[in-house]
TrEMBL record:
It comes from Sinocyclocheilus grahami. Coiled coil: none annotated. InterPro entries: Ig-like_dom_sf, Ig-like_fold. Residues 1-16 form the signal peptide. Keywords: Signal. This is Ig-like domain-containing protein. SUPFAM superfamilies: Immunoglobulin (SSF48726).
């Protein structure tokens, strides 16, 4: 009797997440992309970190040859040295953060026949603004700026742990006295609400946000508005903050 023997190739098991982990960073700062631990002996795990669509790892950990680092990355025809290092648990640390780092990052891990892929999306956090804004009595109102640098959908922000925010004010005449001005609600709509029960000298208005401009709008100019304004945006694991000092110039 003729027997057929069917030999099936063994296919390694691949684990991959559905959505990238959202990470916020500032140019010139330091950011850590946390590696997810996989089953197996840590000494036998291959860890490869990739930037964007690169096919060559930016940095890798090989059980045989140790940590290997890609020294040059080409970005828009400009060669840039990578500033990526591995921490003791093989998480990726980037310092200082460069504009070219705001990409999708992939951590590909191999142990035995299993492969695990985790992705991370690196976003700018808050837009940079001047430390001090000067206005005068000739201007009837002034805007106090605060906004996300990237046009990140609100749905993505909420999925990444965004829980709300606040505006507060500390007058220059009384640095120990801080007033709560506005609180940010995210459901069902994103809206600045006037802080209830606060007896403030600063007259702000609540408003629904249609975009990522989180500024205080049309603040009436007076001597009372001189001070430090703090915009805080709260996530599950961190708070993004921006401070602006407002000075009112006196006319001759």
């Amino acid at each position: 009797m003729l027997c057929w023997v069917l030999i099936l190739p063994f296919v390694g098991f691949l684990k991959a997440q559905e959505n990238p982990v959202v990470i916020y960073a500032q140019v010139g700062g330091t950011v850590t992309l946390q590696r997810y631990r996989v089953e197996g002996n840590a000494d036998n795990v291959y860890v490869n970190w990739y930037r964007g669509s690169d096919t060559i790892p930016t940095i890798m950990k090989n059980p045989q040859s140790g940590i290997q680092k890609g020294e040059i990355h080409v970005f828009q025809f400009i060669e840039m040295k990578t500033h990526a290092d591995l921490l003791s648990d093989f998480s990726l640390q980037i310092s200082p953060v460069q504009h070219s780092d705001f990409e999708i990052w992939r951590c590909v891990q191999h142990v035995l026949l299993a492969t695990t892929v985790n992705t991370y999306k690196l976003y700018h956090d808050l837009s940079p603004f001047p430390d001090t804004i000067y206005t005068s009595y000739s201007s009837s109102t002034v805007d106090i700026p605060c906004s996300f640098f990237s046009n990140i959908p609100w749905s993505v922000l909420k999925e990444s742990g965004f829980r709300g925010g606040s505006w507060s004010f500390t007058p220059l005449s009384d640095p120990k006295s801080t007033q709560s001005l506005l609180s940010l609600s995210v459901d069902p709509v994103v809206r600045w609400n006037i802080t209830q029960g606060a007896n403030n000298t600063i007259k702000v208005k609540g408003r629904e946000l249609k975009d990522h401009d989180l500024s205080i709008r049309n603040l009436p100019v007076s001597e009372n508005i001189r001070g430090v304004y703090t915009c805080d945006l709260k996530f599950n694991t961190k708070t993004l903050s921006s401070e602006v000092t407002v000075e009112v110039l006196k006319g001759k």
